[in-house]
Amino acid sequence: MHTDAIVLATHNKGKIAELSLLLAPFGLSVLGLDAFPDVPDVEETGTTFAENALLKACTVSRLTGYVAVADDSGIEADALDKAPGVYSARYSATPEQKATDARNTEKLLRNLEHVPDEARTGRFRCCMAACSPGGDSVVAEGSWEGRILREKRGENGFGYDPVFFDPRMNRTAAQMSREEKNTRSHRAKAVRNLLDLWPDFWSRCTSGK
Q1: Is the omega angle on the peptide bond into residue 84 within 30 degrees of 0, that is, cis?
Q2: pLDDT at res. 3
Q3: N or C end of the chain, less CB within 10 A?
């Protein structure tokens, strides 16, 4: 097992930048999947965020020989029975067209068009999983409560950030700096929870137990 770096199981440059900053306390180099062009995309066949995160982390770890960290995250709209949830990244996909951030957000806003403001509550949820080539694993979660607006605000972030409003910060996730977002976000909370579990996990990985 390689012990000089970990792999983030994603090609998403926004996630890599965000997670690299959050994972800096590990004291390891952080690689994205672009460094491993032979590793195929892992199909997210799980029905929960935890299942998908573990599936990605363990598959990438086995194929690369590094400890891999993966997340599965999404937005839940209470008025839509917590949809799109685990399908957030492919919410707008059709047989003819792949999903994009813009189309996903547009579909969410269409489906919430007739929902009154007071019922537009929701949250971002994230599950982080780490897995070693030997099969050791650990899972941590985080959530970020807020409201889903009727129109986009802000130019930062990615995904559904422009329509997710944090009442405490009085702005959307896309109106926050990366540092501000990292004090509030579901992913930051999941990473901090993962960090709490990391020493025991890393000890198990490197001891071969």
Answers
A1: yes
A2: 77
A3: C
Residue 153 and residue 179: Cα distance in Å, rounded? 18
| Rg for the chain, CA atoms, rounded | 17
pLDDT tier for residue 126 given thresholds of 50, 70 and 90: very high
Selection from 114, 112, 120, 102 nearest residue 160 by Cα:
102
Which two tokens mark 104?
Answer: 């996903």
Quote the pLDDT of residue 208.
Answer: 61
- What pLDDT, in 10s, does the model give residues 45-68? 899 999 999 999 999 999 999 999
166 carries an active-site annotation: no
> What values do phi and psi take at 120, rounded to 5?
-90, 35
Q: Which entry of 4, 34, 41, 72 is annotated as an active-site residue?
A: 72
| φ/ψ of residue 40, rounded to 5 | -75, 160
Query: 7, 33 in Cβ contact below 8 A?
Result: yes
| Residue tagged 């009085």 (tokens) | 170
Q: Which residues, including other chains, have CB under 8 Å from residue 22's CB and lie 6 or more apart?
A: 182, 187, 188, 191, 192
DSSP string, 63-114: HHSEEEEEEEEEEEEGGGTTEEGGGGGGTT-BTTB---HHHHHHHHHHHTTT
Which residues, including other chains, have CB under 8 Å from residue 170's CB and lie 6 or more apart?
none
Q: How far apart are CA 146 and CA 49, in angstroms?
A: 19
Residue 164 near residue 172, CB atoms below 8 Å: yes
